[in-house]
Each structure stands twice: as structure tokens, then as C-alpha cells.
Amino acid sequence: MNLSEQPLKVKTPIPLGFRAGIEHLRGEWKNRPVFMKTMSSSDPEQQERFAHEGLINGRLSHPLLVPLLAHSERQLIFPFIEGCTLREVIEAGPLAPAQAASVFSGLLDVVGYLHEQGVTHHDLKPENVMLEGGRLEAGAVRLIDLGMAHDRQASSDTHAGTRMGTPHFMAPEQFQGLRGDVRSDVYALGVLLWDALAGQPPYADPLSWLLGVSCQRAPLPKPAALQPLLEGCLHRHPADRFQSTAEMLRMLMAADLTL
User: Fold this and answer.
1) Would you call 123 a catalytic residue per the annotation?
2) 119 forms bridges with which residues in the sheet?
3) How far is CA 159 from CA 38, 48, 152, in A?
4) Peptide bond into 97 cis (omega under 30)
5) Domain 83-254: which topology?
6) From CA 43, how far away is CA 27, in angstroms rounded?
7) What is the pLDDT of residues 28-75, one digit of tens each?
8) Least enclosed by CB within 10 Å: which of 95, 116, 147, 226?
């Protein structure tokens, strides 16, 4: 995707707030509803990270990944997804096992695609999972926000050595600054599934777990058929986890949710 040399403009813009020096708004662009990010910070490091997000998004294409429609030096435009986030659903109560499994299968599909393309998301959490139309099914999943992603095809990593991420969903090695290991996403996916089934992540104090101070974890959520999947994602050491989303998908498909 080519970088637009001119600022991108949307009709009837509606501000949605600011986060980390980036303005979020919705509006209309080329006769379709869109979501636009605008970099308002003058910090060169933040600007570099913003450009990094655009470059990664621009080369990817998957039906369950919200596509980048256009970008300029300071703007990114995406389709506006009518629906809700997975977090909004969880806040209303845990998902039924069949619903959680369906949504999770969609996530494994799109995250597996990212890994095939050399991209590790590094910020997988319910807030970054849109559900088109609010439907709790695989085909409604729309993954967003590659702002913290690691791309093996990039000439440099703008987040190298940082502890960026969301503690509840960060693997211990990611917390230590290691990036680009897809097994960090495997860990985050396990936490995400746990959150969907239990209504909350496994560690009430994730920083103590990440620092190795405490290993106190909530009881495994039901159903029992999905517990081996959860356990296989959440080991402290990457070598002990599932090594790919394909392994996870095989176990998910084999789970008997009627038990």
C-alpha cells in the first residue's frame, strides 16, 4: 500500500478520544464508515511506532483482520466495525463454552495467519477483538491494533527491549523484553480464553506472577474439556507451551464440550 503524501480527510468526523498521543475518530471516507487514527504527538519515537503499525497493517490481508484502507504520515484509516469488543461481552458475564470455543477458533485462524507472515501481535486481549454485529462466532471475529506487533520482515523493531503490553496478558518472556516469539501470543491466547470462560484472567496480581514472586492462580474454569488447552498455553517457559496455534486448534477441535 502506498503512503499518501497528502493528509487524509473524513466527512462528519466524530471524536472518540485520545490514547498515547493518538486521536481516534469515526467518520465517512469514500462513502463508507471508517475509523481513523491520527498521530498528534511530536515525539519522534511515537511517530516511528505509528509508521511501523501502518507498514505492518498495509502488507497483511485476512478476512478476520481489520484491514488498513489508507495511510498518510500521520493517519491510518480502517473500516468502522459495527458491533462490540469481546471485553464488552465478558463484562456482561462469562461466555458459554460453545460460544467461547467458536470465538477462539476464529482468533486461532487469524493469529495463525499473522505468525505465518512473520508477525507476532504482542497485545492480544479482549479489548482488541471486535465482534461484528456482536455475534459470538468465529466468522464475526475482527482482530485489531497491531501497534505493539513485531514484524520479522521489518528492518528494525521500534519496540525492541521494551516491556510494552498488558500485564494480565503478557507472557513472562515478553515482560522481560523478549519480542518476536510467537509462543508469547500462545500465552496471551490462553489468558484470553480463560478470561472469556471465567469472566476474569487467571492472576489477580499479574505483576507478581511475571516477576516470579507469586504463582497463586485462580482455579481452572470449566468445562473440563477445555482445561488441557488452557494449561498448555500458560506455562511460564515457552518451550513447555503449545508451539503453534495449529496445535491449539487441533486440541480445540477435539474437545467434547457436551461433557
Assistant:
1) yes
2) 151
3) 20, 10, 13
4) no
5) Transferase(Phosphotransferase); domain 1 (1.10.510)
6) 26
7) 999 999 999 998 888 887 888 888 888 899 999 999 999 999 988 889
8) 116
Q: For Cα atoms 60, 63, 66, give the angle at the middle one, nearest 5 degrees.
A: 65
Please tell me the distance from the alpha carbon of residue 246 to that of residue 108, in angstroms, as a whole number.
8
Of 123, 145, 151, 185, the catalytic one is: 123
Question: At residue 175, what are phi and psi to the nearest 5 degrees?
Answer: -60, -30
Domain range summary for the chain, segments of one domain joined by +: 11-79, 83-254
**Local structure of 122: helix, strand or coil:** coil
Buried b (16+ CB within 10 A) or exposed e, 142-158: bbbbbbbbbbeeeeeeb
CA atoms of 133 and 234, how far apart (whole Å): 31
> Where does the pLDDT of residue 160 fall: very low under 50, low under 70, confident under 90, or very high at 90 and above?
low
What pLDDT shows up at residue 157?
62
Tell whether the model's pLDDT for residue 156 goes beyond 90: no
Q: Following CA atoms 149, 140, 183, 208 in sequence, which dihedral angle do they give, to the nearest 10 degrees?
A: 80
- Span 197-231, pLDDT tens digits: 999 999 989 888 888 887 888 999 999 999 999 99
pTM of the model: 0.92
Which amino acid would we find at residue 152?
R
Instruction: State yes or no: pLDDT of 24 exceeds 80.
Output: yes
* CATH-assigned architecture of domain 11-79: 2-Layer Sandwich (3.30)
